[in-house]
Amino acid sequence: MSQDFRSRTVTKAKTSMDIMPAAFIGHGSPMNTLETNRFTAAWQELGRTVPRPRAILAISAHWFVNVSAVTAMERPPVIHDFYGFPKALFDFDYPAPGSPELAREVAELVKPGFIGLDRDSWGIDHGTWSVLAHLFPKADVPVVQLSVHSGEDMRYHIGLGASLAPLRGRGVFIICSGNVVHNLRRVDWDNPDRSCEWAGRFDAAVKDVMTSRPGQLADLASHPDYGLSVPTPEHFLPLAYLAGLCARAASPAEVLVEGGTLGSITMTSYVLDRPTPRGRQPSGKPAAALPNPATVPPEQTNT
After folding, report:
1. Which keywords, in A-to-Z order, does the entry hold (predicted)?
2. Per the domain annotation, does 217 fall within a domain?
3. Least confident stretch, 10-14, 153-157, 270-274
4. Domain count, the chain
5. Spatial separation of the C-alpha atoms in residues 267 and 278, rounded to whole Å
6. Euclidean distance between CA atoms 126 and 27, whole angstroms
7. Lowest mean pLDDT among 35-39, 190-194, 219-223, 276-280
8. Does residue 20 register a pLDDT over 60?
9. What secondary structure, in 3-state letters, does the chain show?
10. What's the pLDDT at 191?
């Protein structure tokens, strides 16, 4: 039986000078792995300012199964969980090491709740590596991936996110990867650079909550545009983990980058405790001057 994590957002975490940031990234199409656009430029800039982590704990929309589990292998396989994309994407490798030590730490941290140790069934999927390719392109930081439990509601995921907060004080960068609005049936190929009105409204409502009262994210399930924006929960639920971390820290999230593509996908991303650049100069063009993602199918995947 799953532990009820829903009540774990009430105690504020202890402060630490060494606390790591946490982030939710709207990952969009797997092709963002290979592109430089205004969204991936923002990811790259975040990667340049984050202190080098001891390890990364990733929560990806693409490991959506009926159990909470963490990858616990020394060398997690790189999973190309999609079809219909160019060969260059299937050839892409992100050979980051795993961390069985961190996996065991996560499992211990949530007790008496249960998180299983996965040693052979999953690995690093594109929800994780398409983002880390920009944040940590050398693939030299250990990565552990946490599944999104398909049988639990949003409050469970918010609470579980809150329970992971101590990891931030132990050198772990928690990164959540999904999309706020993700409706493939409503993709508008004629409008690659904008959001439909309903998608924009819901994205704005989420922004209001995440930047002011993130612990109340679950209330958005009653928003009139929730059904169109979140027809299936797997891409939205990773945001609940950041909401829980924010609630535990008693601190709102900050927008990293915002916007939409193809009408029914939003790429808005958030950061908790965003680091201040330490004298590093951004490379390339300013994000605002870069293009939107190419007009390729946003997802053709196994979820």
Report:
1. Dioxygenase, Metal-binding, Oxidoreductase, Zinc
2. yes
3. 10-14
4. 1
5. 26
6. 9
7. 276-280
8. yes
9. CCCCCCCCCCCCCCCCCCCCCEEEEECCCHHHHCCCCHHHHHHHHHHHHCCCCCEEEEEEEEEEECCCEEECCCCCCECCCECCCCHHHHHCCCCCCCCHHHHHHHHHHCCCCCCEEECCCCCECHHHHHHHHHHCCCCCCCEEEEEEECCCCHHHHHHHHHHCHHHHHHCEEEEEEECCCECHHHCCCCCCCCECHHHHHHHHHHHHHHCCCHHHHHHHHHCCCHHHHCCCCCCCHHHHHHHHHHHHHCCCCEEEECCEECECEECCEEEECCCCCCCCCCCCCCHHHCCCCCCCCCCCECC
10. 80
Residue 12, domain member (yes or no): no
Does the reported pTM lie above 0.70? yes
Tokens of 255: 């927008």
Buried b (16+ CB within 10 A) or exposed e, 80-117: bbbeebeeebeebebebebbbebbebbbeebeebebee
Identify the domain containing residue 246 by its residue range: 22-289
CATH number at residue 119: 3.40.830.10
Two structure tokens written together for 211: 């930047």
Q: In the prediction, which pLDDT does 30 show?
A: 87
**Are the C-beta atoms of 162 and 233 separated by less than 8 Å?**
no
Q: What is the pLDDT confidence band of residue 293, given thresholds at 50, 70 and 90? A: low
Decide if pLDDT at 181 tops 70: yes
297 found inside a domain: no
**13 domain residue, yes or no:** no
pLDDT at 31: 87
Q: Pick the closest to residue 193 from 263, 255, 268 (CA basis).
A: 263
**Residue 186 above 50 pLDDT?**
yes
Are the C-beta atoms of residues 106 and 118 closer than 8 Å to each other?
Answer: no
